[in-house]
Records
---
Amino acid sequence: MASKKMSDGGLPVIARFEVRHRNYLAPDGSINRPLPAFASDANLLTALYRAMLLLRNFDRKAVALQRTGRLGTYAVSLGQEAVSVGIASAMRAEDVLLPSYRDNGALIWRGVKLEEILLFWGGDERGNCFSGSVEDFPFCVPVGSQAPHAAGVAYAFKLRKQPRVAVCMFGDGATSKGDVYEAMNFAGVHKLPVVFVATNNQWAISVPLRLQTGCETLAQKAIAAGFIGEQVDGSDVVAMRAAAEDAIAAARDGQGPRFIEAVTYRLGDHTTSDDALRYRSADEVQARWKEEPITRLRSYRVGQKMWSKAQEEQLAAECHERVEAAVERYLATEPRRPETMFDHLYAELPETYAAQRRKLAGEGDA
Amino acid sequence: MPEVTLVEAVNLALARAMEDDPDVVVLGEDVGINGGVFRATVGLQTRFGPERVLDTPLAELLISGLCVGMAAQGLKPVGEIQFMGFLYPCIDQLVNHASRIRNRTQGRLTCPMVLRTPHGAGIRAPEHHSESTEAMLAHIPGLRVVMPSSPERAYGLLLAAIRDPDPVVFLEPTRLYRAAKGEVEDNGEALPLDVAFVLREGRDVTLISWGAMLKETMAAADALAADGIAAEVIDLATLKPYDEATVLGSVAKTGRCVIVHEATRTGGFGGEIAALIAERALTSLLAPVARVTGYDTIIPMARLEQHMMPSAGRIVTAARKACQFS
């Protein structure tokens, strides 16, 4: 963009910045550049593949549940599975994840049960109880408002000299919010151990990226906060995992925050309440199917003779079974009693609200 | 016991809390070497270091959001917002996160944070520095809203707020920061967060107020006493949750109630108290409940602000009218 260059007028340049782009696997599964070391670990690649496939199966089932009235509004990850899976796979158990509402894949990797995610989208707070990663934040629905929390969590790690990292995930729309910039700015000031991940799936519901920012990349937003931003092919799980490993290691090592822009595409609707054909063409979506991450990794592994049809079938059956079992447990979970809406409102419920609780429970007439 | 101002009492409580608990962290704009715009945090950074007393970038939303993140990790952050007019970017964090993270995670994550901010008009400050929008905060479930009216209560209530396992918005009456003086023993003793204080007992009329307005309310009680009217004065002190029992008990005794607040009338917290009395103490009433409040307009700048705030005279008039009602 030539228009962004001002005439120099003989003035010296006092700072220059650059943004790098990371990609290893081409959409057809061929290799664009030498793979990182972990890619020789067949078990790890299988785990990444399994997590993405599980997520896609889970999403499909969740939409079916929603369409049949057994689940509330749901946000699918279709097409962007590599982002949440790649990021979470590079985290340690003791790190803390601050997810947006479309980061199911990361939570599942970190031990949150499928039925918990269904409970959340089914309208039950117990879905946020989170087995496994008990210090992770719940799904954040108000866009980007979890970014300051991530900075606060990372500040606590630094204050207590704990070698832990906060990982904050949000979408391209969130980068337009002051919340995100305020958090990044503070993280930059204190060199906090936090990694910000923007899943750039091109669409914030119906608003395309070009109406979200005048920047060439979202990654460069990190420059204004004083740290490195990298753009990554978010449909290449190898690239996502590698970028996350680097960023998290740097943050843990005291080098300060990092920003990852994961460029991908939301193949599905925003949520089950959305109809994306209102604002983008079927042709656009069809073209993007060529880039999606699951086929990409499978093509690579098949090409390398590292993956067989039998393995694929076995894994598909395993994912199907896991999802079905979780759905059964979800559907068998009775709603809580109405008066439990007062539970965990305060550490100890003040008497004036306890009286309302008793009334709701049918005890007394407060 | 030494006599201190209200802002000095705030400082004492902060220092005591930080001394007692290494998890207490103070953050805000200019709270470090400058000691805060009102000097509430003076000396703390020197004593406890810049990691525990940190000057944040100039971003109020950030301050409240940082508190939520820190608190989820078990720290006890005390954020300062310089004036209540700058609190509003924090509302998203207070409503969507601080007040509900415990409930929405079913107790897995909690939010033991305090957000302090000066409250009210009367110091001839610039625009946006004289707000009293406490009712807005008291409407948020899961939050506690506290407002002291004396150095002693500022000390005890702030200690309680910091030790409380839930989020507290702590509103400090700007006008009393230096005007209110009193003896405070720095003994680390907290006051209860849901008990109103009866500042003066009386049988004829109940005057209920909070924050800086207690000054005018107490002056009104003196004037009424000269007329032979014994007013009972209640400092509500905690607006959420508030002490219904003390309010109802007093009205049952006096049969008359005047509620005084600086904030605008419509939707003000006085309406909540009047409704409580209507629901639970109607048969005790000898006169309609009266409200003496700010007018339903924008708080004017310095030249007119004193006309907005209830005067002792307005309170006396309302109390007399209640006593003469038949």
---
Amino acid sequence: MNVRVWIFCLFPFAAFAQGFAGLGSDAEGFSIPTPDPAFDFPADHGPHNDYRIEWWYLTANLQAADGTPYGLQWTLFRSALAPEKGDGWRAPQIWMGHAAVTTPTAHHVSERLARGGIGQAGVVADPFEAWIDDWTLSGDWQTLDMTASGPTFGYDMALTARGPLVFHGDKGFSVKSAQGQASYYYSQPFFEIAGTLDLPEGTVAVTGNAWLDREWSSQPLADNQTGWDWFSLSFDDGAKLMGFRLQQTDGNSYTSATWIAPDGATTAFPDGAFTADPGETYQTKGGEVPVSWAVSLPAKGVNVTVDAINPDAWMTTSVPYWEGPVRVSGSHTGTGYLEMTGYE
Amino acid sequence: MTRATLHALLSHWWRNPLQLFTLLAGLALATALWSGVQAVNAEARASYDAAAATLGEGQYDRLTRRDGQPMDQTIYVRLRRAGWLVSPVVQGRLDGVRIVGVEPLTAPGGIGPVNLSQDADIGSFLTGAGQLFGNAETAARLPDLDVIISPQTAPGTAVTDIGVAQDLLGKSGRIDSLIVLPAQPQGRPALADIAPELTRQQAQGGSDVGRLTDSFHLNLTAFGLLSFAVGIFIVNGAIGLAFEQRRPVVRTLRALGLPLRRLIILMAAELMIFALVAGIVGVALGYVIAALLLPDVAATLRGLYGADVSGTLQLRPSWWLSGLAIALGGTALAASGALYKLSRMPLLAAAQHRALAMAAGKRALAQGAIAVCLLIMSAVLMVTADGLIGGFTLLGALLIGAALALPLILDQILRVAGGLAKSVTAQWFWADTRQQLPGLSLALMALLLAMAANVGVSTMVSSFRLTFTAFLDQRLASELYVSTEDARQTAALIAYAAETADALLPIQSAETDIEGQPTQVFGARDHATYRDNWAFLQATPDPWDTTFAGQTILINEQLSRRAGLDLGDEIRLQDQTFTVAGVYGDYGNPIGQALINEAQFFRLYPDVMPDRFGVRMPAEKVPEFVAGLEAQTGIPPSQTINQAGIKAISLAIFERTFTVTTALNILTLAVAGFAILMSLLTLATMRVPQLAPAWAMGMTRARLGRLELMRAVLLAMLTAIVALPLGLALAWALLAVVNVAAFGWQLPMYIFPWDYARLGLFALLAAALAALWPARKLARTPPADLLKVFSNER
């Protein structure tokens, strides 16, 4: 049978939150995020099985000694088929891992799927480890080790946090629509990262910065929302910007953004403050996507152009989307990651 | 006007109900034959595909425990966490159904039959709610379980989630094997480092089973096409005669002012309705034929190819449609010519009863020219054709050319016979037979094709059987086959066999490359088994002597064809050169094979350890040997294969194949016989004016009837004589051109004179039966009818 068919049944539509969550607005017995959350670490680094969907989502902008830019992705999604518990093969948790390395001319992708309950994939909070098959992300969140590999690539990375955790929306309660759909959402955007990439052309030593997102919810998107454009930008002056735009069926969009000062202090912006307008497009294997964006956050004087380093960063995974490193120019300069769903 | 016309047209059928019956029955029979063969073919193929898809059996490498026992589930997790992309499978039997548990998220694409467009609830499948997928028959055998009907699932198999299967089979926490996915990530550790208790079984590469099955299906398809050709001739004949007979009606209607256009539309509509009715009856009849044949076909495939084919038939829309299309298309094809003639006919053209015969004379030349062209084309193709399209073009040109040539050949024979005749009656008989020939030619062509198809297909199936049994004898010459798992078992087996068996023949092979072709080289021990049992397609006078002396090499046909190697050519293996001393048939094997002496083999491939052995001993000692083997060496019976059992099954299967072939033979002949009956009946009324003078001059009606019967048998005999070489040419084309194009190996052709004689007898019988009624009718024609011929102005 076609795994893709299975996935489409598991994830009824392909728009997730920082990527993905494939869920309608129906919570069906799962817990629902409520305002004013109180996080408990390290427990909250672990899974929340009473919520339907959750992810550990790491992206990194890397550079080789010769200045060549690279992008890297390590993602683990958890999707619960049912709120009730079960063990062994009956555990209702499905895990999906995506790993990618983007070079200026190539985009390597690999995907893993696993059932929860038998040890093939999972997350434990303390000591923290997230894994699927031989892909792992483990450590104490001050330092993390990360590996993944596919048929054409592999990587082995070490990460060190140089700043605090950052909470989006209202203290980590991130609203996703005018109707009130929301998720719990925090990040560690201050990782320094170093390690090696194994690519068909050879092994490359790289360094750079990485951004780890944690998000969980049971119904993050509204019925009329069809896709998602998500930006994580790291400016050369040390400030960072997370912004997303949710596309709606009526042609309008819902936006939200978090300004992260170099010391980790955050300012959350409601719908409309952040804008992202698509420019030049590129025909990928999966669909035509904008690979140049005009992004602005006037309240912080941001007025930049975001360009894909490799426009062909289409993720040929069960649920396809575009995810790749970007270059920022204009009022601010820097690098970042862009994710686009709903363009199929 | 339309109403009146219709009434007039249809009144023809009221007055000639027999003709209506023959038209409908002819069409229905032709459709039935076509759709019956199609149905059997489609059904067998669908079942086979489902079986092959259920576990992608043989498509992927597998990991199993060395001792064949189930492994702990933690091994799966251990391998996955080490980077090995494997997917677990658990199997077992429950109430006679094979339960297969798969893990859908990690299984490779194409594994498992689950169709989610049906009412499958994916969540309940994955969370152990107990859903299984199986065909209707399987569901009936598991009444207490939640079986979702999925026709693509292999017969006798239910597929479910691994967790459910573990519970059902009492194998909690255990799995039987791991499928190794083709694409693996970089840098994973060796299997021996993570799971030394597991062994890897190679995929069966393209599966020779599939190729043999394809061969069988191709043969059935060829039969289907031939029966279609026979059917088209019959439909053509039926319609042509119906039009011919209605010429007076047409003349009258047109003279009364009916526009030609409307007349043609009405006649076409009338025919299409007939075709539809006959087509529906035909498809239903084909279903009955297929249902009767299917258990045999199913058994054929099951036993011979190991493909599990269910003995039940499903009504598939595809062959409903194709059957109706054949009926409608055939009618349209046949009617278009007749309608065209009708449109060109002068308004008051006499309603000549002999129009057909007279027109035939003018057409003969053109027909002869086309026949000669087609036969020349097929002769050229016999030498040059390669590829399937060439092969089928050859078949088509040969059959149509021969069919078109038949009336001309018969005409010449009758002319010569007529010239030799002495008595007046004999001269009249020959001349009258010649005169009838055009009216009967379509039916005779159908008989020719039916006979040729029978000769061709019987020859092919019988040759296939002889070749394959010889091949089984060659490959399964030893009474018992034993496989060993390690050096200890091998040593124990050698010691045990030295005391108890006549000979132990190691089966050892190495993969290599000969002239760019992937090839398995075997090392054979000098033993009479080889000399006695192996048959060569080409060989030097003493291939085994020179091979066992280490000078020569024996290769299979595939390698010979693909690498262009012939007897006397040299093959280099590492530092040694061998001369080709023999080419042997190796049916169903997709790759090259070569055989050298054991001593040379050990020198060239010192690392290969034999792990399969043929054991020679008197057949009756096998059970004793197997029992002793387990007691003394610990090699369980599951590691042995009793050759006699395999051969018995294979032979039983071929008997089944024969049942199918014979049934189809009789059906085609019946259809051809029907065509003759129909032609004779239609000719009978037309012939009264020609018979009346003979009667008036003193020939009795009984004698006329006897001559009528004799004539039919004579024509059938002449046709049978022409059909024999045609059938043999057909068989040759199937075996030597089509099979080579499709599968890369040629089946040797054997001749079966007794079978042909029997077939000829059947054909004569069919013709005699067909002529019996018309002859009897003739013998009882009221003298008044014959007298009327002289009173009526014609």
